[in-house]
Each structure stands twice: as C-alpha cells, then as structure tokens.
Write a structure and sequence with these properties.
Blueprint lengths: L4 H6 L7 E4 L3 E5 L5 E9 L11 H13 L14 E3 L15 E8 L6
Antiparallel strand pairs: 1-2, 2-3, 3-5, 4-5
Length: 113
C-alpha cells in the first residue's frame, strides 16, 4: 500500500531502527512507548485488520507469534511480556497496517495490582 507508513518501513523507503527482520516481518521500537520495552512486530504483507487475512495469512501471523518468544534477548524482554493487537480507531489503532505490540516492564505511570 503506497501511503502506508509501515509498508514504507518494510520496503526501506523510510528508515526506522529495525532490531529484527526475517522473511515474514520486521520488529522495531515504538516511537511512543507505553512500557519500558515497547516494540512493534509488523508483517511485511499489508493487512489493515485481522479480518482481512486469509487462512494462509493467519499461518503467517502464527509464525510471527511463534518467533516472538525466541527474541527475548534481542528485545530485552526480562520476565514476562504482553502482546497486543489493536483493531480500528476505537481500539487505538493509529497506523492502518496490522501490527503486534510487544511490551515488557511496567506500563509508564501504571503499576499492576
């Protein structure tokens, strides 16, 4: 998609600090972190929503999810971490390209109960 920010990162048209890349996706630090460590895992194939994916595409998402735990050292994920996918404006999706938030450490200004 030619006007998609994340597609421009994937194609290297725009520069971002990619910390991991394979044939399926890239990972880079979020520019507005909501936790001590906050990264985005972005599929190289463009989808706006989960509903836009075929069953084959869902397998791609599964490969991404399966890879994330192997990146604990690269992403400095000490202890546990959260994976979040926002779907639509009302859910806080600000870039119209499916992506997975990877968060570890306490949320800024928030302490778990």
């Amino acid at each position: 998609m030619e006007d998609c920010l994340f597609c421009k990162f994937v194609s290297k048209e725009l520069k971002t600090n990619i910390v991991y890349e394979n044939e399926d996706f890239i990972v880079f630090k979020d520019i507005a972190p909501q936790a001590k460590n906050h990264f985005l895992a972005v599929p190289k194939k463009h989808f706006k929503y989960l509903a836009d994916m075929t069953e084959e595409d869902a397998a791609l998402l599964g490969r991404i999810l399966k890879t994330i735990p192997t990146l604990k050292d690269v992403l400095e994920l000490k202890g546990g971490y959260r994976l979040v996918i926002n779907q639509g404006d009302d859910a806080g999706q600000t870039v119209p390209h499916l992506h997975i938030h990877i968060l570890s450490g306490q949320k800024m200004g928030w302490t778990p109960a």
